[in-house]
Amino acid sequence: MEIATLDRMFPGRAVIGVGHGVRDWMGQVGARVESPLTLLREY
Predict the structure, then answer these.
(1) Can you give the pTM of this predicted structure?
(2) Three-state SS across the chain?
């Protein structure tokens, strides 16, 4: 929803990237990984 909002507010100006998440947040949902870069590389 956030990406769609940015696109509507600033058409053609939003550049979206994919990351591995914030480790603390990922830990809160039980999805913390040993190496975020390895996980990102796998995807």
Answers:
(1) 0.40
(2) CHHHHHHHHCCCCCCCCCCCCCHHHHHHCCCCCCCHHHHHHHC
